[in-house]
Design a protein that fits this description.
This protein is an alpha/beta fold. It has 14 helices and twelve strands. Helix 1 packs across helix 10 and helix 9 packs parallel to helix 10. The two termini are about 30 Å apart. It is found in: Endomembrane system.
Length: about 450
């Protein structure tokens, strides 16, 4: 056991050193060369967004009047002449502290408009007036203040008031000063709509989400990361699917917010998948899945969900066993829940007409601890859900075979109680490509 920990520490330090060197080289040589071109492209993107917005208000959709939104203007636009470059100590420090460009983030401030990235066919869709209410749960730990606040304001601005039961904000014992009294002060404008919970000790993302969910009163739980920006009509498509079948779990299509420019970029229609390392990855969608009457706007069957951005009926979340409380920090919980949904009678879909932007951070916080948690969580997943196929995982990760993974008896019992199908059924019915990859290797 001691030798395994030493190996993790050694390899972790090497990985951290490589990341450091690559980040510095990449940011120094690439950023300034591409900056002017990117912001010129950004200008055309923003003007296009205004046209799409105008079409939406004149068409079948009526955009809800925003509560707090400011117009995108020169005042909060990240112009190059505002004076940052890739060699600034503040930029480098921010990248290692937060994983993205804090200079641009501060220039954007606490709210902004983002371009409507939906397919044009989505603008013609109609949603029922009476939909379930949603509790939006956002957990954060040492998040950059402006990125966190843009997450909140985007939800407030772009969610119909009658559908938003509450936003539950869970602070997992952050250490940064601006996430304490300053955050309390700025949240006063949302009084009555946001509940702020401060954990007395760091629980990790998984258990922090469970704390938020336990306090929710909405019909549907919607989990978001703390560095997101939701898009127009993001919530209605998710709620509409769940209202028809509470055993369907839905994810928005995740757009990219660039870590250096914070430019919002549309992402193509994809589905979630994973490999035998139990690493999540995006996968292409078969053309036949987009040939129906809804075209590229119809729900996409997805073998797995990404990270922590999804919506689930609250009672179903409790019925199916929530998250595995025995998992640490974060990592692997999305795949574990995905397998449980499919194998235990539910379904998982990505909804292309729901769009949420997400900052793709450029560092791994607390690298050694995170790697250890991900290995631990993956082992719990493998021993509970993969049946005989866990040997395929150990072929990829032989060093983990003797590693401790805690007590899984409660999760094994949950699987029996729910009458879940075998992992072979999952491979045959939901994700046959994974077994095919095993045969090809």
């Amino acid at each position: 056991m001691r030798s395994i920990i030493v190996q993790y520490l050694f390899y972790g330090s090497i990985i951290f050193g490589i990341w450091t060197a690559l980040l510095l080289i990449h940011f120094h040589h690439t950023y300034e060369n591409n900056q002017e071109k990117k912001f010129q492209k950004s200008e055309s993107v923003w003007s296009l967004e205004k046209n799409v917005h105008l079409q939406a208000t004149q068409g079948s959709e009526q955009m809800q009047k925003p509560h707090l939104r400011k117009e995108w203007s020169a005042e909060n636009k990240p112009e190059k002449q505002k004076g940052f470059n890739s060699s600034k100590p503040e930029l480098i420090h921010g990248l290692f502290k937060y994983g993205f460009n804090i200079i641009v983030s501060r220039s954007l401030g606490k709210e902004r408009d983002v371009p409507d990235s939906r397919n044009a066919m989505c603008l013609k869709k109609q949603y029922p007036k009476h939909l379930p209410t949603a509790s939006v749960i956002i957990c954060f730990y040492n998040e950059e203040f402006n990125a966190l606040f843009r997450t909140l304001t985007s939800v407030i601005n772009l969610t119909p008031h009658h559908l938003l039961e509450e936003i539950i904000l869970v602070d997992d014992k952050s250490e940064f000063d601006d996430l304490k009294e300053k955050l309390d002060y700025h949240l006063e404008v949302f009084r009555g709509k946001i509940k702020l919970i401060r954990n007395k000790k760091r629980e990790g993302l998984i258990r922090a989400k469970l704390i938020g969910a336990s306090l929710a009163s909405g019909d549907v739980l919607v989990f978001l990361d703390s560095h997101c920006e939701v898009n127009r009509f993001w919530l209605e498509p998710l709620l509409a699917v769940i209202s028809k079948d509470p055993h369907i779990v839905v994810c928005p299509l995740i757009d990219i917010i660039d870590a250096m420019t914070l430019e919002y970029k549309a992402f193509p229609v994809v589905r979630g998948a994973f490999d035998w390392n139990l690493h999540f990855k995006w996968d292409t969608v078969y053309s036949y899945e987009m040939e129906g009457p809804e075209g590229p706007t119809g729900p996409i069957r997805s073998p797995a969900m990404p990270g922590g951005i999804f919506a689930i009926q609250r009672h179903y979340f409790n019925e199916i066993g929530q998250y595995d409380k025995g998992m640490n920090l974060w990592g692997g919980e999305n795949l574990e829940l995905s397998l449980r949904i499919w194998m235990c009678g539910g379904q998982l879909f990505i909804i292309p007409c729901s769009r949420v932007g997400h900052i793709t951070k450029q560092h791994i916080e607390d690298n050694i601890r995170i790697l250890r948690s991900q290995a631990y969580n993956s082992l719990r997943l493998a021993h509970v859900w993969l049946d005989e196929y866990k040997e395929q995982f150990f072929l990829q990760k032989p060093g983990l075979k003797s590693m401790n993974y805690g007590n899984i008896s409660e999760r094994v019992e949950l699987r029996k109680r729910l009458g879940c199908k075998s992992f072979q059924w999952y491979l045959d019915t939901v994700f046959p490509e994974l077994e095919a990859s095993m045969n090809d290797s």
